[in-house]
UniProtKB/TrEMBL annotation:
Similarity comment text for this entry: Belongs to the band 7/mec-2 family.
SUPFAM superfamilies: Band 7/SPFH domain
Higher taxonomy: Bacteria, Bacillati, Actinomycetota, Actinomycetes, Kitasatosporales
Gene Ontology cellular component terms for the protein in this record: plasma membrane; side of membrane
SMART domains: PHB (SM00244)
Name the UniProt record assigns to this protein: Band 7 domain-containing protein
Limits of the Band domain: 21-178
């Protein structure tokens, strides 16, 4: 009786172990590849799956996108500049059977071919192209990788250059070049501003030549602006001095004309406080009337 109980217990344990080995769970983002006696049977979708222990082997393959960093590679560009370039690749398995049968380790294989492809593509471009045309380089690398990995049941969805390390001498040279470019743009902008200012001044001078009164008003405005600062020394511009000279000449002419009018008419003489007859003293002291 005791021996029967032991046998039953052993059989129950064996059954439990067999069930544990026969039950497989394929998750939603996975696809199962079933082999029986080493021969491909087919694929199994997500859910609870049963296999024959010691006969069947079920490989579960993830179908999610995998992010793979590509190690920094020392690359010599087409113009003989040494740079260190690192990138990142995104890929996913689209054919689970090929990813198991066609290649042993798909992740390691993609990593190695991505490094060699990165070195090859970047080496075909100059440094300026590598820095400015990263989108085209990314597309070239992805197309080459995708063409190779298609036979493995893998699709490369995206490749991006992550970092480009330049030598210190090249960094200093590029900094000097950028500084020279900024100085060049600054000089061009200053020259354009001076050209516009000169054209505006030319138009203003033409206007003032056509209207002399505008020049005088501008000079007076300058005097007002100078007077606000309470300066002890005032420098008069030459046009203002000529204007003052012309004003003095005008006043002198007006005074001469007034004197001539006074001599020709008696009324202005009376207005100046003179009598109609002037007394001139004679030599003996007696006054003489003229």
């Amino acid at each position: 009786m005791a021996a029967l109980i032991v046998v039953l217990v052993v059989l129950a344990v064996l059954v439990l172990i067999g069930l544990a080995m026969a039950i497989r769970i394929v998750r939603q983002f996975e696809n199962g590849v079933l082999f029986r006696f080493g021969r491909l049977v087919g694929t199994r979708g997500p859910g609870l799956r049963f296999i024959i222990p010691f006969v069947d082997v079920l490989h579960r393959i993830s179908l999610r996108i995998v992010t793979m960093p590509i190690q920094s590679q020392g690359i010599i560009t087409q113009d003989n500049v040494s740079v260190d370039v690192s990138a990142v690749a995104y890929f996913r398995v689209v054919d689970a059977v090929k990813s198991v049968i066609a290649i042993e380790n798909v992740n390691s294989a993609i990593d190695q071919i991505a490094q060699t492809t990165l070195r090859k593509v970047v080496g075909q471009h100059t440094l300026d192209e590598t820095l400015s045309e990263t989108d085209r380089i990314n597309l070239d690398i992805r197309q080459i990788l995708d063409g190779t990995t298609t036979e493995w049941g893998v699709e490369v969805t995206l490749v991006e250059l992550k970092d480009i390390q330049l030598p210190e001498t090249m960094k200093r040279a590029m900094a000097r070049q950028a500084e020279a470019e900024r100085e060049k743009r600054s000089k061009i902008i200053n020259a354009e501003g001076e050209s516009l200012a000169a054209a505006a001044l030319g138009d203003a001078s033409d206007t003032m030549m056509a209207h002399p009164l505008a020049l005088q008003l501008r000079n007076l405005q300058s005097l007002v602006e100078i007077g606000v600062d309470k300066n002890t020394t005032v420098v008069f511009p030459a046009p203002l001095m000529s204007t003052i000279g012309e004003l003095g000449s005008f006043l002198a002419r007006e005074a001469t004309a007034a004197a001539t009018s006074a001599q020709s008419s008696p009324a202005p003489v009376a207005a100046l406080g003179l009598t109609e007859s002037a007394r001139v003293p004679e030599p003996n002291g007696a006054p003489e009337t003229r």
